[in-house]
Amino acid sequence: MDLSAVLRWDKDLLLALNGSDSVFMDGVMTTLTSGWLWIPLYLAFFYVIVKNNDTMAQIMLALGGAVLCILVADGVTDGIVKPLVGRLRPCNDLSLKYIVDTVPGIFDKNFSFFSAHAANICAMATFFSLLIRDWRLVVGLALWAVASCYTRLYLGMHYPSDILVGILFGGFVGYFSYRTYIYFYTMVTPHTTYVSTQYTSSGYNLTDVDIILTVLSLLFLSSVFLSLILL
């Protein structure tokens, strides 16, 4: 399969997944793609890290791992790859901009390949899944990542290949950040395995995991509510 066939498949898949005739869905996707919506989730992560670590060194290492996710994922994507590749977003590409569905007010002059949105969120989801180690959280963060990535296709901001590469790179960055965190964490903390019905295997209280999942659920519901009142 040559490159032109791959690019044609990429465009066809985008058009199959992009947009709808629903003003309500436009509102949901616009809300879900906003970085501002997820601030309470990041605050929940912060609260859980502070509560479940005993020393300032442990807290700073965990927070540092999360910050490393964003610095690497966003830095490589927006700072290096996008300017080098220079691929136009679907909504800015003259061959597509008049047939791809877009939502008024949602645009970006930045380049498309690959998705920093997908890379950042998947890096964070991977890091916190490995850090906290609870299957319910893994499922919740996976749904968060999938929903966030789909919004970029729905809104005509990215091609499927942009999203796929962003997911893969984000997963790698999240794993790299976690391994970096573990490397330094073992220097300041003796290895402990938690076997309890109250804690995850990495020592995080299950009640605090519930807090993260509750916040995540409420944010999804709020995107629906906001879309309904703005109809």
From TrEMBL:
Coiled coil: none annotated. It holds the Pfam family PAP2. Residues 63-178 form the Phosphatidic acid phosphatase type 2/haloperoxidase domain. The keyword ATP-binding does not apply. Keywords: Membrane, Transmembrane, Transmembrane helix. The chain crosses the membrane at residues 28-50, 111-131, 138-157, 163-188, 209-230. InterPro entries: PAP2/HPO, PAP2/HPO_sf. PANTHER family: AT30094P, SPHINGOSINE-1-PHOSPHATE PHOSPHOHYDROLASE. This is Phosphatase PAP2 family protein.
